[in-house]
Amino acid sequence: MTTTGGLGEYFIDDPKNEAPKPGFRLRRFLPNMLTLCGLSAGLLAIQKAMNGLPDQAVLLITFAAIIDTMDGALARLLRATSKFGAELDSLSDFLCFGVAPAFVLYVWVLDEAGPVGWIAVLVFAIACALRLARFNTMTEVDPRPEWARKFFMGVPAPCGAGLALMPVIIYQLFPEMSYFNFLTPLIGVWMIVVAGLMVSGLPTLSTKQFKMPQMPAVAMLACGGAFLAALIHAPWATLTVVGFAYASSLFLGWQKYLELKKANTAPAVKTDA
């Protein structure tokens, strides 16, 4: 239930379908505020790239990706999902995972790659916008069968940004690799390949395939703390491992998809009466 106008319509808590109650609702506000924090991190990443600090820019985009996994989960936990929040999240994702990574890579090396560099930047940003637009429409009407809806179609925007930024991450892990300058055109080609994966129909794994074990809250917090500690104290090694692990999961996702497709499209066995 919403009000007739203004931002108050997105902060209504009306679970019993009663008359509209305009005004501020904290549980509606928190997920959107978290999204704005991620958006701010993406903008700050662009600033850091302009100041010649691509390492800090990558870390800020990583921070935005972590927030992106949290704001939606928080909204569902608080039962505070809204159309406004979904649209705000999509706009934030486009800037943080489409514009910011492209800008970081262009300022870092792709400005020296000639037309290939700028074409790669444009293709990646456009692919991210198309990816998000397709995702938004498929959340309303998904023509795929039920078993196929457990997969993402194409690489999600945050994962695509991470894959595109892998050259920067590996360089920070091995700064003595000065021959990265000779690989500049290949980095542009790699960026175009990642853009293609984002808008492709490639089935990729999502959390719907995994049944989380029943773990105490303290154990889950300990696992999360261990990951954050690794990210803080060894960010480049941690991000490299995560990046290669996700790249490997693309093959696993495709294999699992084919297995499920074969199982769900197998002809029924006829039995004699």
Question: Can you tell me about this structure?
Answer:
It is a single chain. The chain is mainly alpha-helical and 273 residues long. The protein has a single domain (21-220, 229-254), classed as Four Helix Bundle (Hemerythrin (Met), subunit A). It has helices spanning 26-50, 54-77, 83-108, 115-140, 157-164, 166-173, 184-199, 217-233, 235-265; strands spanning 152-153, 203-204. Strands 1-2 form a two-stranded antiparallel sheet. Helix 2 runs antiparallel to helix 3 (83-108) and helix 2 runs antiparallel to helix 5. It is globular.
State the strand order across the main sheet: 1-2
* Pattern of helices and strands: HHHHEHHHEHH
Helical content class? 55-70%
How much is the radius of gyration in Å? 21 Å
Residue-averaged pLDDT, rounded?
Answer: 84
Tell me the name of the CATH class.
Answer: Mainly Alpha
Oligomer status: single chain
Tell me the count of domains.
Answer: 1
Computed structural class: mainly alpha
By DSSP, the count of extended strands is 2
Distance between the termini: 55 Å
At CATH level 2, the architecture is Up-down Bundle
Q: For the report, how would you describe the main beta sheet? A: 2 strands, antiparallel
Uncertain parts:
1-21
Tally the helices.
9
CATH topology: Four Helix Bundle (Hemerythrin (Met), subunit A)
Strand portion = under 5%
Gross morphology = globular
Question: Short description, anyone?
Answer:
The chain is mostly helical and 273 residues long.
Write the layout of secondary structure elements.
Layout: H1 26-50, H2 54-77, H3 83-108, H4 115-140, E1 152-153, H5 157-164, H6 166-173, H7 184-199, E2 203-204, H8 217-233, H9 235-265
Antiparallel strand pairs: 1-2
